[in-house]
């Protein structure tokens, strides 16, 4: 019988199958450690690494461990204090079945397990509007058509600017709902008191200003797909209603007593680590597991430098500047740049550098060397001290706002911890949040607290 939706099929010739053993990493502090069925993991002291090593001699992103088809390759990522395998310092090395690793002065055990993992990578470098030749992206390209065939919820994780909405669009375009509505709802862009009305609609007179009955995005997306961007920003009191919409397939407008059935596939995205938000009490556990039936994790651009040349070429062509030359040294510097704004920041850089290019060559002097750039604004703290924050006008509003909030969050908790003498319980009481939440923030921002 012919497949009624042939566009979800991927030719077997376009796929590369990999099979490897599950492996475990364990710190010297004891415990069972962590078991991985991913082809690639990042190791370092920053909390967004796959395996976090909390030690002052460990770099924020210290090393990468990946199965490349030939074996388990450990690669040092330019760390300050080096990477060691069984007492030998290495830049990269294939690991034996069991090994003692050292990152700086922190020891970590590596061991293979019996379970085997099967994954597929496509040989294509494009899917929809997504581009990439890195193994991480080609693995996602192979996964999307399979995910698209079902109607189960999908959770897309990744930093701002990595292309989460493009993944959602690709899932929609490869599904049986391709010709149906695709509605985007940004949970971070709607005031909390209006979120329920925007999602589920309202009837006339439901609240002040409700002069007419209005449908919400769930009703507008009936038969199609709804993309809930920044789902981690959804108010806690609204999360049970979203859970009901997912489980029962029905919604109730604000001020209405009648429930309506809706047929909607939900794809959610977040730049937060949602399982940590669950632990901190900021996100409902039952909703998290309902959304994360399938998880797609988008890597940061700094974790896939082999994609930078392809993306630069694409952005140059899109701007009508494909004749602009990019030297080898320039491309090397672009691949080494951290790109905190990810692909979106790279595009902005290319657009700006093309305008400023001299003699038809892209130059890296147009790269930002600071975390924040552009115009500066001064704000006054409660103690009268003035704080200068940078407004990055080269980024889209959403990304510039997010980066400004990141700086504010760091400065706020840094100062409050100082005033509390490093006491997390006291700082959380003054800040009006749960201690567990502050523990997570301290780890995420690499702050000092007792």
What does this structure look like?
There is one protein chain. By secondary structure, this protein is of the alpha+beta class. 30% of the residues lie in helices and 25% in strands. The protein contains 13 helices and 22 strands. It has helices at residues 135-148, 164-173, 192-200, 217-220, 239-248, 274-279, 285-291, 308-318, 328-336, 342-356, 397-419, 424-431, 435-445; strands spanning 15-27, 34-36, 40-44, 51-52, 63-67, 72-76, 83-85, 88-90, 92-94, 98-103, 106-122, 126-127, 130-131, 154-157, 182-186, 225-229, 250-252, 259-261, 265-270, 294-297, 375-380, 386-391. The strands form six sheets. The chain has a six-stranded antiparallel sheet with strand order 2-1-11-10-7-8, with helices on one face. A five-stranded mixed sheet has the order 4-3-5-6-9, with no helix packed on it. Strands 15-16-19-14-20 form a five-stranded parallel sheet. The termini are far apart. Mean pLDDT is 85; it is low at 1-9 and 370-375.
Quick description:
The protein is α+β, with helices and mostly antiparallel strands and 450 residues long. It has 13 helices and 22 strands. α12 packs across α13.
Helix-strand blueprint:
Elements: E1 15-27, E2 34-36, E3 40-44, E4 51-52, E5 63-67, E6 72-76, E7 83-85, E8 88-90, E9 92-94, E10 98-103, E11 106-122, E12 126-127, E13 130-131, H1 135-148, E14 154-157, H2 164-173, E15 182-186, H3 192-200, H4 217-220, E16 225-229, H5 239-248, E17 250-252, E18 259-261, E19 265-270, H6 274-279, H7 285-291, E20 294-297, H8 308-318, H9 328-336, H10 342-356, E21 375-380, E22 386-391, H11 397-419, H12 424-431, H13 435-445
Parallel strand pairs: 3-4, 14-19, 14-20, 15-16, 16-19
Antiparallel strand pairs: 1-2, 1-11, 3-5, 5-6, 6-9, 7-8, 7-10, 10-11, 12-13, 17-18, 21-22
Helix pairs in contact: 1-2, 5-7, 8-10, 11-12, 12-13
């Amino acid at each position: 019988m012919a497949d009624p939706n042939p566009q979800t099929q991927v030719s077997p010739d376009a796929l590369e199958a990999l099979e490897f053993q599950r492996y475990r990493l364990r710190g010297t502090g004891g415990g069972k450690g962590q078991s991985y069925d991913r082809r690639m993991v990042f190791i370092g002291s920053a909390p967004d690494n796959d395996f976090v090593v909390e030690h002052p001699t460990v770099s924020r992103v210290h090393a990468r461990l990946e199965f490349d088809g030939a074996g388990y390759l450990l690669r040092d990522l330019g760390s300050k204090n080096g990477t060691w395998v069984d007492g030998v310092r290495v830049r990269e090395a294939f690991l034996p079945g069991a090994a003692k690793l050292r990152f700086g002065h922190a020891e970590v055990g590596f061991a293979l397990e019996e379970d085997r993992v099967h994954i597929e990578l496509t040989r294509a470098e494009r899917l929809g509007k997504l581009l990439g030749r890195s193994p991480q992206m080609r693995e996602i390209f192979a996964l999307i058509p399979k995910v698209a065939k079902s109607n189960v919820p999908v959770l897309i994780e990744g930093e701002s600017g990595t292309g989460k909405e493009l993944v959602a669009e690709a899932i929609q375009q490869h599904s049986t709902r391709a010709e149906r509505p695709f509605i985007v709802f940004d949970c971070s862009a709607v005031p909390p008191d209006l979120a329920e009305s925007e999602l589920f609609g309202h009837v006339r007179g439901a609240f002040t200003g409700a002069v007419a009955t209005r449908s919400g995005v769930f009703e507008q997306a009936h038969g199609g797909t709804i993309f809930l961007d920044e789902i981690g920003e959804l108010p806690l009191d609204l999360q049970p209603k979203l859970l009901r919409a997912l489980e029962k397939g029905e919604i109730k407008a604000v001020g209405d007593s009648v429930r309506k059935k809706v047929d909607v596939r939900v794809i959610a995205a977040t730049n937060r680590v949602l399982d940590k938000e669950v632990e901190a009490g900021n996100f409902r556990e039952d909703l998290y597991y309902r959304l994360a039936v399938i998880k797609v994790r988008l890597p940061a651009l700094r974790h896939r430098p082999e994609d930078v040349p392809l993306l630069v070429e694409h952005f140059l062509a899109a701007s009508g500047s494909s004749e602009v030359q990019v030297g080898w040294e320039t491309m090397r510097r672009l691949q080494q740049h951290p790109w905190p704004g990810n692909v979106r920041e790279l595009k902005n850089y290319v657009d700006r550098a093309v305008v400023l290019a001299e003699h038809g060559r892209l130059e890296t002097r147009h790269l930002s060397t600071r975390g924040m750039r552009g115009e500066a604004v001064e704000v006054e703290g409660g103690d009268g001290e003035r704080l200068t924050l940078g407004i990055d006008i080269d980024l889209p509003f959403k990304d510039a706002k997010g980066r400004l909030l990141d700086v504010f969050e760091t400065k706020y908790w840094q100062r409050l911890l100082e005033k509390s003498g490093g006491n997390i319980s006291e700082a959380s009481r003054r800040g009006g949040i749960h201690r567990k939440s502050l523990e997570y923030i301290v780890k995420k921002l690499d702050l000092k607290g007792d």
